[in-house]
Design a protein that fits this description.
This protein has 111 residues and is of the alpha/beta class. The protein has one domain (14-106): Vaccinia Virus protein VP39 (Rossmann fold, 3-Layer(aba) Sandwich). It is built from 4 helices and 4 strands; from the N terminus they run αβαβαβαβ. The chain has helices at residues 15-25, 41-48, 60-73, 92-95; strands spanning 31-34, 52-57, 82-86, 105-106. The protein has a 4-stranded parallel β-sheet, with helices on one face. Helix 2 links the parallel strand 1 and strand 2 (52-57). Helix 1 (15-25) packs across helix 2 (41-48) and helix 2 runs parallel beside helix 3 (60-73). It binds S-adenosylmethionine.
Length: 111
């Protein structure tokens, strides 16, 4: 179960939908990006499916919650696969400069 504070987010992704997208469009070990990650649902589900994952959100409070969801939902084997950071999706070349040319799937649900 995701942390109860997720109810405060107005635009949550359904975990089953995130899993389906990740499973259909990426492989184990691929790098998945959610550029507007909110609670972190997509990167949590990606890591649970053994993908590497990076989430970005412009609001500190959602990045904090996403990081806590990663800690809460993932085990010792999958937690190192996912990370989250504060950033503006309009500046992705800067925000995700360390992933340039290495992203296999972008799965984002914008506001
Ligand atoms: C529909 S929600 C995403 C929900 C997420 N998939 C989840 O499961 O919680 C959209 C998110 O985009 C973020 N956002 C809005 N503008 C943004 C921007 N320019 N850069 C990054 N994130 C942004 C919002 O803070 C919000 O958390």
């Amino acid at each position: 179960m995701y942390l109860p504070e997720c109810r405060e987010h107005p635009g949550k992704m359904l975990p089953d939908l995130a899993r389906r997208i990740v499973r259909c469009y990426s492989r184990r070990g691929d790098l998945v990006v959610d550029a507007m990650c909110g609670n972190g649902t997509t990167i949590v589900e990606a890591a649970r499916l053994h993908r590497r994952a990076v989430g970005v959100d412009v609001e500190d409070r959602w990045v904090d919650l996403a990081a806590r969801n990663l800690d809460h939902m993932l085990d010792d084997a999958t937690r190192p696969l996912a990370r989250v950071r504060v950033g503006d999706a309009r500046q992705l070349p800067d925000v995700l400069a360390d992933t340039t040319g290495r992203v296999d799937l972008v799965a984002t649900s914008p506001p």
